[in-house]
Amino acid sequence: MSIKKANFLLVLVTVAWGASYLFTKTAVMELEPFTLIAYRFLIAFVITAIVFWKRIKQVTAQTILASSLLGSIMALVCILFGYALRITDASVAGFLIATTVIIIPLLMIGITRKLPTRQVITGGIITLVGLGLLSLKGSFSISFGMALCLITAFLYAVHIILNNHFVLKHDSLQLGVFQLFFTGFFSLIGALLNEPLVLPQTANGWGSLFMLAIFCSAFAIILQSIAQKYTNAVSTGFIFSLEPIFAAMFAFVFLNERMNGQEMLGALFIFVGVLAANYTPPKVRKLQVNMQN
After folding, report:
1. Average pLDDT, the chain
2. Helix then strand then coil, % of the chain, to nearest 5
3. Most CB atoms within 10 A, among 21, 69, 120, 131?
């Protein structure tokens, strides 16, 4: 698979993440955060385990361990984000968590001991400006909720980097399927300790839960694991920064929520930033083609 195809698949993953805001908005009216995450990911695991049984039945202990680590981090990301939204404005939270796109290159400097490329630095600056325009409104002050958002962004960046590392050493499909299980399993423990286990009470609640499980979890997590094998963590982070744009598009179509001029300008900056970060100069492209030949 080429890098371009892998990045395109990651865009589809980002579309799924963007849609999750729409379905979560309905589901949280009937389910508590831990319970929703547990149901969502465990249903996704059951579906994918049935579909891909022949591929996953020969899973190794090493892959199980890698999946459990990724699943525990993903569960923390979902849970912390849920709590942060309770005490922080969604617009501010969205901006802070989207700083994952900046945290990843910084972490990669420490891991690889190499500075990011000029394209990545330029794209990061443009994307950060765009995220600010899209998400920040009114005053900006430090709070406990904002600190939770920054921790969430850091953990999400760690998850992306680790996922990139593990897919090179393990079966990416197995990694994705069992990651779904462990995310749901750890969330279920949290639900049993903190919340009453209840089921959705309406057709909308059930529909939203299954859309989150099938489209926003099973489809997205497995596709991410497969695609990340052929790209890098920095490109993944930049592509995932498109999530607020897709979320806004779904909100416009289904919830009749409209973006103002500042938000539209921010969306444009993010799009340009992603293109800039993933741009390959002609000389480098030619060199890559010659190396492949």
Report:
1. 81
2. 80, 0, 20
3. 131
